From TrEMBL:
The lineage of its organism: Bacteria, Bacillati, Actinomycetota, Actinomycetes, Propionibacteriales. Residues 24-277 form the EAL domain. It comes from the Bacteria. This is PAS domain S-box-containing protein/diguanylate cyclase (GGDEF) domain-containing protein.
Length: 277
């Protein structure tokens, strides 16, 4: 009986798996063309200083407007880009576009806001990652001090030695480095000791739960204390409610991001946030 059930379950499952694989392949083919055809763009989400209540910078978030399927989430296409190696050309486009935008904002008289760019580990494993990043800074004229790179804990864990080495050299150039989605990966204290990071971003799942679940609140409190004891600044992700912002401020969290404070928006809309006087 078990065998029969197993077999029929398999039969029902197989076409679904095949369809999924097919969608992945199609997405990869489409993604290969997306940058050339202008389907990719960057949204910018403000980062707020919780104490001073000012915008200190933004995070650049990749957007893909597919001609048929509409807007596709980076959570869906970044893993495909990583598996196929497309993350390298796409990641180049992201960094160049972000730095060019940052330079244009400075030229337009905006206050110096930092721009955080998400990177995948594979980008640090290419031939000359430091030369690549500094080359983009030079060609765009964007100051290294205003660039922050974000790497998730799980990406970081792929090859700790290499990431430590590359991070160290990027820090020497003046670039800031954030550990993203903190608390969702292995959260080894050893990373914090070894990485020359400048900030830690508390994953939004903990911020979401911290006013309901004592466990989430404990993680948020501990992450803030931990970061500060390592000399890192802390950013909370996914702040959606006034009460969450107040709670984080009381805990001494440095910065926050979230729909309450500003959604990811096109460049012109982000710049308009500075227009009111
Ligand atoms: P992330 O770096 O942790 O970015 C934060 C994500 O949370 C973004 O999702 C943002 O839109 C979303 N978010 C911000 N505030 C709120 C909030 O208050 N509530 C909720 N529910 N969500 C909020 P997004 O833009 O869909 O990006 C998902 C992930 O994709 C990013 O997570 C990042 O890991 C990755 N990603 C995005 N752009 C790039 C890129 O250019 N390169 C690479 N390698 N990864 C990227
Ligand atoms: Mg990020
Ligand atoms: Mg994150
Ligand atoms: Mg994330």
């Amino acid at each position: 009986y078990a065998k029969a059930a197993g077999r029929s379950a398999f039969r029902a499952f197989a076409p679904e798996m095949a369809a999924k694989a097919q969608r992945r392949t199609e997405m990869e083919i489409d993604l290969r063309r997306a940058a050339d055809e202008g389907q990719l763009w960057l949204a910018f989400q403000p980062k707020i200083d919780l104490g001073r209540r000012t915008i200190t910078g933004c995070e650049a978030l990749l957007r893909w407007d597919h001609p048929v399927h509409g807007s596709i989430s980076p959570a869906d296409f970044i893993p495909i880009a990583e598996d196929s190696g497309l993350i390298l050309p796409i990641g180049e486009w992201v960094l160049e576009t972000a730095c060019r935008q940052g330079r244009a904002w400075l030229d337009a008289g905006l206050p110096p806001v930092s721009i955080a760019v998400n990177i995948s580990a594979a980008q640090l494993f290419q031939r000359d990652p430091v030369g690549w990043v500094t080359g983009v800074l030079e060609s765009t004229g964007f100051p290294p001090e205003l660039l922050e790179l974000e790497l998730t804990e799980s990406q970081l864990a792929q090859d700790v030695e290499t990431v430590v080495a590359v991070f160290g050299r990027l820090r020497d150039v003046g670039i800031k480095l954030a550990i993203d989605d903190f608390g969702t990966g292995y959260s080894s204290l050893d990373y914090l000791r070894r990485f020359d990071a400048t900030s830690l971003k508390i994953d939004r799942s903990f911020v979401d739960g911290m006013l309901r679940e004592p466990g989430d609140a404990a993680i948020v409190r501990a992450a803030i204390a931990l970061a500060h004891s390592f000399g890192l600044s802390v950013t909370a992700e996914g702040v959606e409610a006034e009460a969450q912002q107040d709670f984080l401020r009381r805990l001494g969290c440095d910065e926050a991001q979230g729909f309450l404070l500003g959604r990811p928006v096109p460049a012109a809309e982000f710049a308009a946030l500075f227009q009111h006087t």
